[in-house]
Amino acid sequence: MTRHVAVVVGSLRKDSLSRKVAQHLVETAPKGLKFQIVEIGSLPLYNEDLDHAPPAEWTAFRQALKRADGVLFVTPEYNRSVPAALKNAIDVGSRPYGSSAWAGKPGAVVSISQGALGGFGANHHLRQSLVFLDVPTLAQPELYLGSIQKAFDTDGHIADENVRGLLSGFLTRFDAWVGAHAAPALARAS
Questions:
Q1: Per-residue b/e over 56-71, b at no fewer than 16 CB within 10 Å?
Q2: How far apart are CA 95 and CA 47, in angstroms?
Q3: Nearest Cα to 17, choosing from 109, 112, 92?
Q4: Is the model's pLDDT at 188 over the cut of 70?
Q5: What's the rounded Cα separation, in Å, for the pair 6 and 68?
Q6: What integer best gives the mean pLDDT of the chain?
């Protein structure tokens, strides 16, 4: 059985390191997982006044999340937290109140930085939101990728074998996590 996973990239930059890590994960996903990057850059800022007639971008984003069996976040750290676009996506997906598209989706967080801490602050701020959103989040392995810019070759592919190994082990655990926690397709359809 193939499980579909929405991949949410916290950085909007076309050539971002987060996007490159996400693309590596998409390309090396285990056989039972199908990853799809769900874009967040065009989401209008969340404003509860618009819930009665939500923008088309909100509706498409929420539907993409609802179709997914799980969710994977790949994000940089901005000022010891998540980027504004990612926080907005979390808010858009969580509304209207009582209809969160995130609820019950098994998830995981990969955080990156060009510094040594690997996005530790962003990782943990995001996990706080995921607890409230009822996203059972993979606890181990925690994946903080520091000095990530050094892991890539000149073509933008991950060449560092240690990083490739970390990502491979992470994907194995995430595959098992999604398998153990994803709602059956019939339950999602109702």
A1: eebeebbebbbebbbb
A2: 10
A3: 112
A4: no
A5: 6
A6: 93
Q: Is the pLDDT of residue 96 over 50?
A: yes
For residue range 124-155, list pLDDT tens digits in order.
999 999 999 999 999 999 999 999 999 999 99
The angle subtended at Cα 101 by Cα 95 and Cα 102, nearest 5°, is 105
Per domain, the residue ranges of the chain are 3-189
Element (H, E) at 87: helix 84-93
Burial of residue 145 (CB within 10 Å: 0-12, 13-18, 19+) is: buried
Residues of the chain above pLDDT 70, percent: 96
State residue 190's pLDDT score: 44
Phi, psi of 115 (to 5 degrees): -90, -175
How long is the chain? 190
User: For residue 125, which phi and psi values (nearest 5 degrees)?
Assistant: -65, -45
38 neighbors 64 (Cβ within 8 angstroms): yes
> Could you tell me which CATH number the domain at 3-189 has?
3.40.50.360
Judged on CB neighbours under 10 Å (0-12, 13-18, 19+), 88 is: middle
| Residue in the block written with tokens 């998830």 | 107
User: What pLDDT is stored for residue 189 in this prediction?
Assistant: 45
